[in-house]
Amino acid sequence: MNQIAPRPRHILCRAALPLVAVTVLLLPAACAKGGDTAATTEIPAVVGAQTAMATMGPFAETVGAIGTVEPRAGFRAVLSAPAPTRVSGIAVSAGQRVTKGQLLVELDRTTIDADAQSAEAAELAAQQGYDRAQRMVTAGIAARRELEQAAAALAQTKSAVASARRTAQLSTLRAPFDGVVTQLDATLGASVDPSQPLVAIANPSVVDIVIALSASDAARVHPGAKVLLRSAAGTSGDSLGEATVVDVAGIVDPVSHSVAVRAHAGHTVRELRIGEMLYGEIVLALRPHAITIPAEALVPEGDGYKVFVVDSSGLAIARAVAVGGRHAGVAEITSGLTAGERVVTYGAYGVTDSARIIRPGAKSAADSTPTGAQL
Known about the structure:
By secondary structure, the protein is α+β, with helices and mostly antiparallel strands.
């Protein structure tokens, strides 16, 4: 019987080596699949997030701030005493509507009338002196120079009489036009002089809106720009009408550190009250083909913003975008998005990159419809 000679030991070891190597190589894969679950991290799905589609259309870039209704220059009058005297009567109150010629404040005329009578007496004496000088010059008794001096003195007294009569007329302060009393600083019996404003009236139908902007924002505003007026609640306030920018101040207010932008009010849904606070949105530019999304979709990232774009499989992919202007809760996107792409709006701050978006009401990711009108 033939015996099979045993193979050399070094040959057996060499043949077994490849099998060992395969076994060793397969071990990490088996471990990763079975025991080590921490090696793979699953991104949790986001339930209840909402989305909106990026659209293309007209977009108005605006800047807004609180403004104050003020009387327009030329339609406001400030009255004061024509001479030192006392307040003897007050016929109106602040905020009261008045008509042209209506009595506002009455002043004590005692001193004023005495001054007028004194001026008239001086005029009479000067007239008599002039007549006498003229007769003497005609008779050749006096020089022509004396007549000229008498004429100058007469002219001076006539001017004083006219001034005194005008002062007497102004001792009763009356409304120069129809309007409303915007300021009343008169106190019954108080001493007053021409340097003290006593009463001011303005035409309430001709007003301006003065809006306080930062210096950087004011630099982008130019006369002729349209202003959208709203109640003081801001962009969510009731619409009041429109105005037009007529002037941008050339200085910064040292107290408020703002620049005053003055706009003429046009047609408004109601009469604006002088002193009323309202919100003015100044239209800086109007772009007819802008890509816009709801502003709540923007997520700050560093010095810029990102959005989460939902792809056809329902995954939210982070993407950096460049933001232009904003208006009424809408943001203009100048780069990073195209019209028709869908972005996460409500819940965007809770989304991570590559997370699956599950629409409200869906039981699982399989039930979610990423391409619906609103997830």
